[in-house]
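Q: What would this complex look like in 3D?
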Amino acid sequence: MTTLAVRRTGFPFWLGVGAAVVAWLVAWFIAAPLALWVAFELLPLEAGTPLGEAVAFFLYDVPKVLLLMFGIITVVTLVRGFFPPEKVRGALAGRGEAVGTVAAASFGIVTPFCSCSAVPLFIGFVEAGVPLGVTFAFLISSPMVNEVALVLLWGLFGPAIALIYMAAGLSVAILGGLVIGRLHMERYVEDYVWQLRGPGTGASFEMKLTWEDRVRDSWSYTKDLVRRILPYILVGIGIGAFIHGFIPTDLVMAVAGPGNPLAVPIVVLLGVPLYSNAAGTIPIVQALLGKGMAVGTTLAFMMAVTAISLPELIILKKVMKPRLLAVFVAIVTSGILFVGYLFNFLIYT
Amino acid sequence: MKTIEVLGPGCNNCARLEKNAREAVAMAGVEAEVVHVTDPREIVAHGIMSTPGLVIDGKVVSYGRVPSAGDIAVWLSEPATP
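A: Here is my prediction, written as structure tokens for the whole assembly.
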């Protein structure tokens, strides 16, 4: 077994980490006052005007969202590094259906999961004898209960909304997994998956990583991720700013407020085919909530955008026959609709 | 000559890993060929589920992360373990 033995610098590294944390805190607290100052003192804009409000929103939101992303993704990636799917698979393999499904959905939250890993992950789970429904519970919860979304929600709306989102995502994953398990769709998995010879459970070695390795990994991953999703974020904030400044509250309330029973299907239909990183949806969600969009409807929109993405479906098509894929999409969509209505019901009646 | 396999379907991280691997070969000054494996069946055959994975001479040395060229160079310079 190999171990890493390079450039572990020790103290200077941790000093740098400390300095970064301080810089982050400073930036966090001056973001709002600075944005207002730039919008209304430096630029000839006025508070209360559509353009003024839109620009202020944009200037305030960009640094906030960027700071949240950098801070949170780094920390969460660090934690997730302790739960690689290879380890989780071993824990899920022997379990009964109900327990396994709940466990899988829960693990899905903490396990790092890049869409490109979808196929090896699926195959790996199935091969190890993890029941199909349990595997799906993991596949559903992992991208949907996205750590970025959770933490942005926490940072912008407080712990209540974040926890509600997490509970909603878990419910959809567990119910979806149980239903798919009941349907016994094993024959709709591509045949070659069942014939694969792999090392099986527990054969993967465990990598030895120091804390410094882990922090460096997390930071490097974060930088790369933020760079890649920056366009989505900026577009999202732009749209959010526009909504905040220019869209009248009455319009949003009419279409997507608690009073419109069709709001949930509308946003889910919009969200499913959309592909955006969860982070890009947050500013839009922020603006819409501010304009009176119902909470359940908002959650449904976020989940619809993040749970199913076209690139992921294309990748999964390699291991699932079209019928299974269709069932997967149908169940997740139904679950999201249900959760949207449920939360609207719970909160507004 | 060493064989280095980069396991992954070709996303961003796999591309970075391949780049780091090639750099590492140059840094370590060893003779090695770098192969990018994208077939999911082959990837899973190594017991890996989180891509990208790195295999040197048939042994899995990393998965789920992108080690730097420096780290890979160290692995390349280590004598083969029995």
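A: To summarize the key features: Residues 211-246 of chain A form the longest helix (36 residues). Confidence is low (pLDDT under 50) at residues 1-5 of chain A.
Q: Very helpful, thank you.
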